[in-house]
C-alpha cells in the first residue's frame, strides 16, 4: 500500500511540474510574441534583408566634335520568381492562362529557344516554385523594352514573377581607335574571386568623375543563398559625368592608319604617333601600336608617354643651348671627321657613312652628324656640364609633362657627380643618348619652336559636363613664355627647314606643301643581349605648314632586329608626311597654305570625245570647235571588241562600254589611263571591265 502511494505521489509531482513547465513556456512565448515581437521580427529581417550597392551609369567620353569615344550600354539579366505568392495564388491561374503568349514572345524577342521549350521551362519553374531562376543574360535595351511590353508583365506589374537586373557594358564605337588613350573600364575576377575593375588611360585618370555615386537596393535572402531585389526599395545612384576630350577622330584615324601601314610593311615591334595643336597644346591624335604574337597590331601600351633614348631628334635641344648661349652661329665650322671621332676611349659614329669633314653647324645638323653635336657639347660645355643640364631643366625635360594620363614615365637625365655620370655622358647626350625622355616631351619642345618660342602644356581634356552643362573647363596652359631668344628661334627654324630641304629628310620634301622637322635614328639595347641584335628606333619630329604652323607631330617606331630599313627618314618620316598631306585636304586652315602646281593650258593637250559633244560645248561657249589638237572619237566602234579608251572621259567611256553590254567599275578621278581588258580583245556579254582614272600617261 505504501509503495502504491509513493508511486502516485511521484507521478502527481511530475505531472504538476510538467504542467508548470508548459504554462511557463506558453507564458514566455506569449511574452516574446507580444512584448518583444517587434524586436525579434526586425532581427529576423536583418538576417534575411540587406542593402546592396547599385553602380551609377558611367559617364561618356567624347571627341572634341561630340562623337562618342567610350560609352556605357545597358544590359539586363532576367530571373524568374515563380515561388512568390502573387504567382502561386489560385494555383497559378493567371500565369497558366497567359503562358502560351508569354512563351511565344520570349522566343520572338530573346530567340534562344523555341516557344515550346520556353513553355516547358516556365511550367517547370512554376511547379518547383523556384524563387530565383536565371532565364537569360545580357539582353540589350531594345529587348528589355519589348519584354516589359508583354501583356502579362505589363498588366501584373508587381505580380508577374519576372525580375530584371540592370548592368552596363563599356563600349568603344570606334573600336581600337585611340583605345589605349581612351582607356579600358572592364571587370574581371582576381585570384580570390573578387570582382575588380581595371582602368587605364582617361578612364583611369577621370574614374572618380566618370563612375558617379553608387546607389543602394534592398535585397532579400531566399533558399539556396540567393538574393532577390525588393521592389520599390532602390536608392537611385547619381550617374557619372561626361568627359569632352581634345581628340579629333578624323585626325586620329589618319594618324593610326598611317602608322599601321608603315609598321605592317616593315614588321616593326612598336610605335607611337602624336599630333598636337601648336597654339594650344591640345592633343588631336595619339596612336600607340604594338606587334602581337600572331603578327597583328593592337593598342597595348602607351608608348607616347614611355621614356626612351630620343636619338637625333634631341639634337635640336643641343643646338638651342649653344645658339642661345651665343657660343656658335649657324655659319661656324666644325670638323666631323668623316663621321668618326675618338673621345675618352670611346668612338662616336655618325649613323650614315659619309666623307664630310669641314662643315658648318647648320650642315652638321642637317646631316644629323653625331660627331658634330658631340663636339659641340664637349667644346662649349665640357668645363661646365651643369650649364648644359640647366637648359634641359629650363625646357622642363627633368620632369613629366603632366598630361592628364596616369602612368607617364619619369625622365632620366644624368647629372655631374651622380653615379650615372661618366666621361662620355656629355658628348653622348649631345646627340640624344645617355638620357631618356618620352616622345611627348620631345614633341613639346618642337611644338614650342613652332609656336614662336611659347611652350604649351600638352592636354587631352577640354571639359567635364553633366546633363549637358559644363561644370569644369580646361584651358591652354603656358609652361614657358619663351624657351629662347628670337634670334635663336629663327636659326632653329632654318635648321629644321634645311633638314627637309637638303638634309637627311630630303626624301620627304614636297614643294607644294613644305614641312619642317628632324629625323632620328637611335640604336637601342635588347635587355641582356645588349646591342648585338642591331635594333633601331626611328623617329621624326616637326611641324606644318611651314609658314604658319598649326600642328606639330612626332613619330617614334621601334624596328625588329636586323631590319634592312631603319633610318628615321625611311620609317618614321613617311608616316609624318602622310599625316601632313591628308590633313591639308580636310583642314581648311591648312588648305590655303598648299602651293598648287601651275595650271596647264588645256588647249595644248589632246582631248578625246564625241565630235557632237565638242561642237555643243563650243557653241555654248562661243569658241571655235575645229581646234586641231582635239582628237574626235570615231563612231565606228566594232561590236564585241574592246576599244582603246585611254584618254577618254568617264562619261564617254561608260557610253561606249554600256553599248557593248558589259559591266564597268571605275577607280580614281580624271581621264582613263588604264583598262583591265586590252584593246582588240573580244568581249563577252555581262563581262566586267575595270577602268583606272587619273592623269594622262605618256608613251615612252
Description:
By secondary structure, this protein is of the alpha+beta class. The chain has three domains: 51-241, Penicillin-binding protein 2a (Domain 2) (Alpha-Beta Complex), CATH 3.90.1310.10; 250-591, DD-peptidase/beta-lactamase superfamily (Beta-lactamase, 3-Layer(aba) Sandwich); 609-694, Trypsin Inhibitor V, Chain A (2-Layer Sandwich), CATH 3.30.10.20. 34% of the residues lie in helices and 23% in strands. The chain is built from 22 helices and 29 strands. The strands form nine sheets. Strands 2, 3, 4, 5, 10, 19 and 20 form a seven-stranded mixed β-sheet that branches. A six-stranded antiparallel β-sheet has the order 13-12-11-24-23-22, sandwiched between helices. Helix 12 packs parallel to helix 14 (370-381) and helix 12 packs antiparallel against helix 18. The longest helix is centred in the first third of the chain and has 33 residues, at 2-34. It is flat, with a radius of gyration of 39 Å. Residues 599-606 and 628-635 have low confidence and may be disordered.
Amino acid at each position: 500500500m505504501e509503495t502504491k502511494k509513493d508511486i502516485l505521489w511521484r507521478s502527481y509531482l511530475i505531472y504538476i511540474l510538467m504542467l508548470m513547465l508548459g504554462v511557463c513556456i506558453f507564458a514566455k512565448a506569449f511574452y516574446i510574441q507580444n512584448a518583444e515581437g517587434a524586436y525579434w521580427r526586425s532581427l529576423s529581417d536583418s538576417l534575411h534583408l540587406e542593402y546592396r550597392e547599385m553602380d551609377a551609369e558611367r559617364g561618356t567620353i567624347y571627341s572634341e566634335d561630340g562623337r562618342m569615344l567610350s560609352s556605357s550600354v545597358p544590359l539586363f539579366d532576367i530571373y524568374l520568381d515563380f515561388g512568390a505568392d502573387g504567382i502561386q495564388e489560385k494555383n497559378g491561374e493567371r500565369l497558366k492562362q497567359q503562358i502560351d503568349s508569354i512563351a511565344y514572345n520570349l522566343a520572338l524577342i530573346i530567340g534562344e529557344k523555341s516557344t515550346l521549350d520556353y513553355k516547358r521551362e516556365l511550367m517547370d519553374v512554376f511547379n518547383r516554385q523556384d524563387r530565383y531562376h536565371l532565364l537569360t543574360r545580357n539582353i540589350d535595351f531594345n529587348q528589355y523594352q519589348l519584354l516589359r511590353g508583354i501583356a502579362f508583365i505589363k498588366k501584373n506589374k508587381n505580380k508577374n514573377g519576372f525580375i530584371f537586373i540592370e548592368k552596363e557594358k563599356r563600349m568603344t564605337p570606334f573600336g581600337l581607335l585611340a583605345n589605349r588613350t581612351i582607356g579600358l573600364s572592364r571587370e574581371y575576377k582576381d585570384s580570390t574571386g573578387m570582382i575588380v575593375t581595371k582602368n587605364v588611360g582617361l578612364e583611369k585618370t577621370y574614374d572618380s568623375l566618370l563612375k558617379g555615386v553608387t546607389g543602394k537596393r534592398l535585397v532579400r535572402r531566399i533558399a539556396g543563398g540567393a538574393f532577390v531585389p525588393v521592389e520599390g526599395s532602390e536608392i537611385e545612384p547619381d550617374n557619372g559625368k561626361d568627359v569632352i576630350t581634345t581628340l579629333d577622330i578624323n585626325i586620329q584615324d589618319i594618324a593610326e592608319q598611317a602608322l599601321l601601314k608603315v609598321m605592317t610593311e616593315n614588321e616593326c615591334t612598336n610605335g607611337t604617333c602624336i599630333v598636337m595643336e601648336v597654339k594650344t597644346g591640345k592633343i588631336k591624335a595619339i596612336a600607340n601600336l604594338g606587334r602581337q604574337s600572331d603578327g597583328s597590331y593592337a593598342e597595348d601600351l602607351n608608348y607616347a608617354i614611355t621614356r626612351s633614348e630620343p636619338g637625333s631628334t634631341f639634337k635640336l635641344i643641343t643646338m638651342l643651348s649653344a645658339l642661345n648661349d651665343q657660343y656658335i652661329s649657324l655659319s661656324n665650322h666644325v670638323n666631323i671627321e668623316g663621321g668618326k671621332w675618338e673621345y675618352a676611349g670611346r668612338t662616336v659614329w655618325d649613323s650614315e657613312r659619309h666623307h664630310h669633314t669641314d662643315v658648318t653647324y647648320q650642315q652638321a645638323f642637317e646631316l644629323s652628324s653625331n660627331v658634330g653635336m658631340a663636339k659641340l657639347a664637349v667644346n662649349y660645355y665640357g668645363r661646365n656640364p651643369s650649364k648644359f643640364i640647366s637648359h634641359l631643366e629650363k625646357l622642363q625635360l627633368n620632369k613629366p609633362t603632366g598630361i592628364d594620363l596616369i602612368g607617364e614615365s619619369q625622365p632620366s637625365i644624368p647629372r655631374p657627380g651622380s653615379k650615372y655620370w661618366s666621361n662620355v655622358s656629355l658628348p653622348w647626350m649631345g646627340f640624344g643618348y645617355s638620357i631618356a625622355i618620352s616622345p611627348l616631351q620631345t614633341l613639346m619642345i618642337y611644338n614650342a619652336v613652332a609656336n614662336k618660342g611659347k611652350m604649351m602644356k600638352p592636354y587631352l581634356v577640354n571639359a567635364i559636363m553633366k546633363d549637358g552643362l559644363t561644370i569644369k573647363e580646361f584651358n591652354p596652359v603656358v609652361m614657358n613664355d619663351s624657351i629662347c631668344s628670337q634670334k635663336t628661334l629663327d636659326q632653329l627654324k632654318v635648321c629644321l627647314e634645311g633638314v627637309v630641304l637638303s638634309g637627311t629628310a630630303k626624301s620627304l620634301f614636297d614643294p607644294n606643301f613644305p614641312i619642317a622637322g628632324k629625323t632620328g635614328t637611335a640604336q637601342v639595347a635588347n635587355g641582356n643581349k645588349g646591342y648585338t641584335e642591331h635594333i633601331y628606333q626611328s623617329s621624326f619630329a616637326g611641324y606644318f605648314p611651314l609658314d604658319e604652323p598649326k600642328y606639330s607631330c612626332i613619330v617614334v617606331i621601334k624596328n625588329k632586329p636586323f631590319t634592312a630599313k631603319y633610318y628615321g627618314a625611311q620609317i618614321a618620316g613617311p608616316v609624318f608626311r602622310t599625316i601632313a598631306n591628308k590633313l591639308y585636304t580636310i583642314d581648311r586652315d591648312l588648305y590655303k597654305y598648299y602651293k598648287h602646281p601651275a595650271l596647264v593650258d588645256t588647249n595644248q593637250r589632246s582631248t578625246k570625245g564625241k565630235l557632237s559633244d565638242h561642237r555643243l560645248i563650243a557653241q555654248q561657249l562661243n569658241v571655235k570647235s575645229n581646234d586641231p589638237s582635239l582628237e574626235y572619237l570615231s563612231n565606228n566602234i566594232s561590236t564585241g571588241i574592246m576599244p582603246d579608251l585611254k584618254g577618254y572621259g568617264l562619261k564617254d567611256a561608260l557610253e561606249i562600254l554600256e553599248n557593248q553590254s558589259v559591266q564597268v567599275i571605275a577607280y580614281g578621278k580624271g581621264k582613263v589611263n588604264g583598262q583591265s581588258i586590252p584593246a582588240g580583245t573580244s568581249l563577252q556579254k555581262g563581262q566586267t571591265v575595270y577602268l583606272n582614272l587619273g592623269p594622262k600617261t605618256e608613251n615612252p
